[in-house]
Amino acid sequence: MAIAIVGAGLSGCVIAHQLAKAGKRCIVFESRSHVGGNCYTERDGKTGVLVHVYGPHIFHTDKAHVWHFINQFGTFKPYAHRVKATVKGQVYSLPINLHTINQFFQQAMRPAEAKHFIQQQAHDIPNPQTFEEQALAFVGEALYEAFFKGYTIKQWGVSPQELPASILKRLPLRFNYDDRYFNHPWQAMPEEGYTPLFERMLDHPNIEVHLQTSFNPEDAAHFDHVFYSGPLDGWFDYRFGRLPYRTLDFHKKVLPDEEDYQGIAVMNYPDAAVPYTRITEHKHFAPWLYEQTRGTVLYEEHSRACQPNDIPYYPVRLAKGQALLQQYQAEAERLKNVTFVGRLGTFQYLDMDVTIDQALDVAAQYLARAQI
Ligand code: UDP
């Protein structure tokens, strides 16, 4: 019997590749008309810009094995991600670094001075649990209000008092002028976009791919095992209710005559009064393609609660835990021939490298069990 892999996103493709290489026959079911999940990229017909169709994906990792794994499937170009924020008509450096602190407080502090200054601003909260506590303990009220509060309410649709501290822990705070968004040693973008990487992962005689084909959970018994990367609650036909997700509306603007709209790939808009969270200008994700493009493509990103027919993007995990999630997890535990994987299958906010790492692990564990 074959193995069913539901979803041709990052988890599904990594697992299919690993199992196929080990001699297992894999059938991949993908409901969309393309592989790559939300990492899918394509060239815009009018401008030639490589567009991250489901929003920006920047590859970064500190895991050598993940870096080596992904490099098998295409050439990566070094890409240090940088982000700016427009707050009340002024442009600031992000993530919060010495430049941001000096800009915001109109000072010219050196690192030790700024550290001392921020320590005085920061609230003394010994073990921050919520996003708000973490932010106040991290940078104090003024920077929290300017850079995090409005953005976070727009992005998550709930008060930062209800969100877990882990969301803010994604962002660094630096007392130097390093303005790279990520700390990881490997930060890069695939030269031709992400889609060819997925096509290569799936290019194996043991892998059969069915696009525009949904998988019916009732068919699980026809397979040795199912790796399911769709929404966890979807597998159970939402029987206990729907898990909360945020979806994104991208207001796409194609500007054929504009060379450079904002001078950087991502501009954040933390002000509560601005309806979107950020504008991404996709050509800046691939500077090596500038000469092949004319004009530019922008995405204005609007976040809202995910409805049944929307694409689920961010799982909303609240600081107080989630009884509904636990109900589904308990059901999932009982299914011995189904493994739930990835962002939707495990209801986790996962970066690409963590998704790959988890998928490699899941595949290795399955193969180890299959040998016994
Ligand atoms: N965040 C914020 N202001 C910003 C950027 C991020 O408040 O200018 C918060 C927000 O809650 C966001 C989280 O930090 O969801 C993580 O940001 P990141 O840039 O990692 O989000 P992603 O790119 O994954 O959407």
Structure in words:
30% of the residues lie in helices and 20% in strands. It has 372 residues and is an alpha/beta fold. It folds into 2 domains: 3-81 and 187-370, 3-Layer(aba) Sandwich (Rossmann fold), CATH 3.40.50.720; 83-169, no CATH class. The strands form 4 sheets. A 7-stranded mixed sheet has the order 8-7-13-14-15-12-16. β3 (41-43) and β4 (50-52) form a beta hairpin. α1 (10-21) packs parallel to α11 (352-371). Bound molecules: uridine-5'-diphosphate. Residues 85, 94, 147-148, 151-152, 155, 167-168, 170-171, 268, 270 line the site of uridine-5'-diphosphate (UDP).
Fold topology:
Layout: E1 3-6, H1 10-21, E2 26-29, E3 41-43, E4 50-52, E5 59-61, H2 64-71, E6 76-78, E7 83-87, E8 90-94, H3 98-105, H4 111-121, H5 131-139, H6 141-156, E9 186-190, H7 195-202, E10 207-210, E11 225-228, H8 232-235, E12 245-255, E13 266-268, E14 278-281, E15 296-305, E16 314-315, H9 323-334, E17 338-340, H10 342-346, H11 352-371
Bound molecules: uridine-5'-diphosphate.
Uridine-5'-diphosphate binds next to α6.
